[in-house]
Amino acid sequence: MNDPVPSVTVLICVRNGADYLTEAIISAQRQSVPPAQVLVVDDGSRDGSAAAADAAGATVVRQPPLGLAAARNEGVRRAEGTLVAMLDADDLFVVDALQNMCAALRPRSDAIGCVGRRQHFISPELTAEPEFTGTAPPADAGPCVLPAGGLWRRESLLSEPFDTSLVTPDLDWVNRCRELGRITLLLDDVVFHRRVHRNNMSRD
User: Fold this and answer.
1) Number of H helices, E strands in the chain
2) What is the pLDDT of residues 42-85, one digit of tens each?
3) CA–CA distance, 3 with 82 (Å, rounded to integer)
4) Are the C-beta atoms of residues 83 and 102 closer than 8 Å to each other?
5) What phi, psi does 119 have (nearest 5°)?
6) pTM of the full predicted structure?
């Protein structure tokens, strides 16, 4: 196995996501160039998510159910790496995601982060259900510029935290960074697989 990237923390925030969390953690641990830390912030789960993360070998931080923005902000504060790769608890990094994003970001000190493409897949346990039988995954919408699935400089996340007054803070964060003129690099490679299942936040 290659030596870990000492500057990268993979941050996974979860609330009641134990069904898929272990797979997400494993996808981070089994990178071609693995991170130095996989950090899970449990946002008040009641389904054993924290125990699942601990059993999978992640560093676990527990907090009351304060929301995604608060969980991400806390994770950034606790991260040991100078770079933070964010992954949703139901998604999967492709095996060379960190290697490719690190390589792109390393020479670009003017950029706050790096993102790539996403590829959807229907969660296997749903393919036999009427709603999903014969259904193709949603069309992939090119590069995913949202925080999850990307690699970010920790200092930029500390200086521009997520807005805890919002239930879905991602687009607000992206727009604020754009208004400040901050640069995000776009890779043409697929860097993560987005799981389609019954409880996706976007389906709500």
Assistant:
1) 6, 8
2) 999 999 999 999 999 999 999 999 999 999 999 999 999 999 99
3) 17
4) yes
5) -130, 125
6) 0.90
